[in-house]
Amino acid sequence: MLSLRSIASxxxxxxxxxxxxxxxxxxxxxxxxxxxxxxxxxxxxxPPFIPLGQVSIKQDGSFDPLxxxxxxxxxxxxxxxxxxxxxxxxxxxxxxxPEGLDTLVGxxxxxxxxxxxxxxxxxxxxxxxxxxxxxxxxxPSSKLKLSYISVTPFTSGSQGRGCPTGSNETSVSLPxxxxxxxxxxxxxxxxxxxxxxxxxxxxxxxxxxxxPPEPEKSFxxxxxxxxxxxxxxxxxxxxxxxxxxxxxxxAKK
Length: 253
Description:
One of its GO terms (cellular component) is endoplasmic reticulum membrane. Residues 1-24 form the signal peptide. Belongs to the EMC10 family. Its main location: endoplasmic reticulum. Keywords: Endoplasmic reticulum, Membrane, Signal, Transmembrane, Transmembrane helix. The chain is α+β, with helices and mostly antiparallel strands. It has a domain at 21-188. It has 2 helices and 10 strands; from the N terminus they run αββββββββββα. It has helices at 4-16, 219-237; strands at residues 29-39, 50-58, 63-66, 83-86, 91-98, 113-118, 127-134, 145-150, 170-173, 182-188. Strand 2 (50-58) and strand 3 form a beta hairpin. It starts with a helix and ends in a 16-residue tail after the last helix.
């Protein structure tokens, strides 16, 4: 039979092993790993994601970019790997991995948040990564949004904000570290909207009962003056015609 001390020890051990929310306190922060990859076109194979860096997001919306340690594959390689060529139809993808996922298991990538953009936008612009979190929930990873836009649109030979149509080859410059990416954190607070209420009923002060609303008037009660006016006008138009005046005179005597 277990003693009271043993039961208390087992309860304390079970409580300490329970996973806590990502934002258990105002000083805690959620850490995410940022990955990226370039999908050239044409290509016979799909390259894997490469870690670009880490970002630590606090509950108040402040963040700290954290580089991944040396030897962990944080960069895309040497200087030769930062510039790639394709026919302008390739894609550049950025993925956000929540803390705690095993990156060695490929199925875990299904839980990453991925944003894509055409590779032609990277020819003359810096990538901008926008991460939106919902501070009204205890586990913001389920409410995290990721968007990727270009700071400056590609304008050479392009129409509007579209990709260039006159050139078939594009030189794409890839960022090597997270410091080369314009990182922006947006904190969203979802406030419940109050329901719209109808006007309060009118109460008779002498009796305290609700005054019944006036019955809706019929069509004739609303427009009886116009109906009578139109009727009189039609009656005057339907009267007998005036006799025409005689043409010639009588016979001479």
